Amino acid sequence: MNSPTTRTTTRARIGATVAAAAVVAGGIGLATPAVANAATVTKTITIDAKTAGADNVFAQSGVTVAAGSTVSVTATGSATFDPNYTTEVAGPNGYPEITCTDQPQSTCVLSGSPQMALVGKVGTAAPVVVGTGPTTLSGSGPLSFAFNDQIDGFANNEGSFTVTITYTPPCTGIFCFGS
Ligand SMILES: [Ca+2]
Questions:
Q1: What percent of the chain has pLDDT over 90?
Q2: Exposed end of the chain (fewer CB within 10 Å): N or C?
Q3: pTM
Q4: Ligand 1 mean position, distance from CA 154 (Å)
Q5: In angstroms, what is the span from residue 156 Cα to ligand 1's centroid?
Q6: Is-contact 149 157, C-beta < 8 A?
């Protein structure tokens, strides 16, 4: 093997540029100038209980988690997996007393966890319950979310969760001008 190449990148004094890029990319969150080099971004998305997780296809957040970094997720809102089954709705923690159980004709998004819970995953990793959070997720890859129901049973779902993601973008692409 050849000797590894050591490369040093200077990132000093680009904090203002990073913050400005973060505002554009996130769309919301940093309404005022951030402290230099504090490139944390807050992004809020809506997870529709009728679609997010149907056929086991998670809803993409638009946030990609870089290896070695983490994201913090909180959620609010209410939804139901079957308005004819119960008039009650669940928050992002789902119904603790109703465990999503695989059926012969349809498996759960996350079997063995509360029905109607907000679940999330990073890349191709196994999904986990996110709930109301704050929940810290790590890994590598796109961050995506789903409503926990049998994957063939989403048509009768109602409601949505508002999911807020706080993260520090990796220093690549538009976040690292001049680096
Ligand atoms: Ca359903």
A1: 62
A2: N
A3: 0.74
A4: 4
A5: 5
A6: yes
